[in-house]
Amino acid sequence: MSAPAAVPLLTTPLNALHTELGARMVPFAGYSMPVQYPSGLMAEHQHTRQAAGLFDVSHMGQLKLVGPDAAAAFESLMPVDVIDLPVGKQRYGLLLNDAGGIIDDLMFFRVAQSEIFVIVNGACKVGDIAHIQARIGQRCEVIPMPDQALLALQGPQAVTALSRLAPGIEKLVFMTGGNYTIAGCDCFVTRSGYTGEDGFEISVPAAQADTLARALLAQPEVKPIGLGARNSLRLEAGLCLYGNDIDTTTTPVEAAIGWALQKVRRTGGARAGGFPGADTVLAQLDNPASLTRKRVGLIALERVPVREHTELHSLDGQKIGEVTSGLLGPTIDKPVAMGYVLPAHAALGTRVNAIVRGKAVPMEVSAMPFVPTNYFRG
Amino acid sequence: MTIKFSKDHEWINAADANAAVVGITVHAQDALGDVVFVDLPEVGALFAQGEVAGVVESVKAAADVYMPVAGEIVEVNEALRADPSLANSDPLNTGWFFKVKLSDASQLDALLDEATYADFAKNA
Asked: CB of A263 within 8 Å of any CB in chain B?
């Protein structure tokens, strides 16, 4: 994921603050990003699960699609229902290639009937914007928003901290949002995130990001959290990391994110198909026996971390798959992983072996999330 | 007998050449972050200098533990296996990894002394 050495790293609008806070900076998606602060990954992870953590995710891509045909146009790129998403609501989406592989996963928000706000992965944003522009640039305006920073405030006390600065914001429920003035900053806020916890994502003009971040960090519940804990939090929540768990070679059905494909776009639905790779994806949905692999959650039965690219074997020693993300989950306090296995080994409770440094570590196919989610649904 | 350091960020205290103590340095544990797992060698195993004898893992990364000198493993730190965070909280004492019977004590001479290692780690 790191940028080629010759390319200087970009910085986010919070770069000076990260340095001031003593962050350890690493290259990620072409940016210099905080991987952890002095308290360390474990403490940061636990703080987010127990109180509230502030994440700088300004490397992510933000853009707007504007025009009367924007929703229908965007829907033509994804296997999800865009057209019927009500104004004021947010949804998870997937850009697919013509083979049904995942170009990126994203969040989109219906700002108005003719305006959609989209947040995509940092490492994919240049390609995503080019793809969207090329495919639907004739049908709606595609407006990148490079001058917006993005902060995430996550954890059970995020609402306490944020509503102190923006009374009324506690009324938002999961996957809704709106405009708020917070500490004098012009914010667009959604109640969502990528940790499995209740929380908010806040889009703010880059020039105001430092002011907003300092105002949030001044709240007693809030501490800064790095990308390291973001990764362990999202994995415990069973959420995919693009580039590890999903990529252009995996379809949404193989990736077990069929829940993101609403009925209206499936076979028999009013707007079935009509997205890139529809033939492949719908055939897999209609005939699960045709799948050659499936993403599953795994918990190790011994206290040995099982990391990405670790081979998975059946109990009789055949290679059946590979781990795509894995670590010792700080909250569940067990080694957890996700990976792809042959469908015959994908049922919950199936025992497999991970081959770690030549030794078999027993694992069990397990339900995700590994840690119960804590979303606020009102 | 003073403590010597390797460029792989291990320390070795060879006060007893039949049971020299090996661990990871303060710099190494700081770079790794919170240690959650250690894989220790078998007692009786023989290793050449520079061979991988163990593994130390934090939530975010795994790192090999190399043999700073050749020898036979005579004891491993079961307390560390049970509580890997000792590698963070007390890396130079109770967070030791294993003890080794030296095959060739002269290999110690090529290792770094504390001041040289401190300079090396600063630029690592």
From this structure: no
Cβ neighbors of A268 (< 8 A, separation 6 or more) are none
Report which secondary-structure segment, H or E, holds B63: strand B62-66
Residue of B nearest to A231 (CA): B60
Report whether B97 contacts B38 (CB < 8 A): yes
Bridge-based pairing state of the strands A31-36 and A10-11:
parallel
CATH topology classification for B3-104: OB fold (Dihydrolipoamide Acetyltransferase, E2P) (2.40.50)
How many angstroms separate the CA atoms of A316 and A218, rounded? Answer: 56
Which residues in chain A are contacts of B36 at CB distance < 8 A?
Answer: 42, 305, 328
Q: What DSSP letter does each residue of A313-363 carry, written as one string?
A: E-TTS-EEEEEEEEEEETTTTEEEEEEEE-GGG-STT-EEEEEETTEEEEE
C-alpha dihedral (A122, A124, A126, A129), degrees to nearest 10: -110
Q: Does domain A10-61+147-225 have CATH number 3.30.1360.120?
A: yes
CA distance A304 to chain B (A): 7
Both tokens of residue A212? Answer: 């907003």
- Report the run of H or E that residue B29 belongs to, with start and end: helix B26-32
Please tell me the distance from the alpha carbon of residue A31 to that of residue B118, in angstroms, as a whole number.
Answer: 30
The complex scores an ipTM of 0.85
Q: What pairing do the DSSP bridges indicate for beta strands B52-58 and B46-47?
A: unpaired
Per-residue pLDDT tens digits for A116-156: 999 999 999 999 999 999 999 999 999 999 999 999 999 99
**pTM for this one?**
0.94
- One-character DSSP codes across A223-259: EE--HHHHHHHHHHTTPPPBTTTB-TT--TTTTT-GG
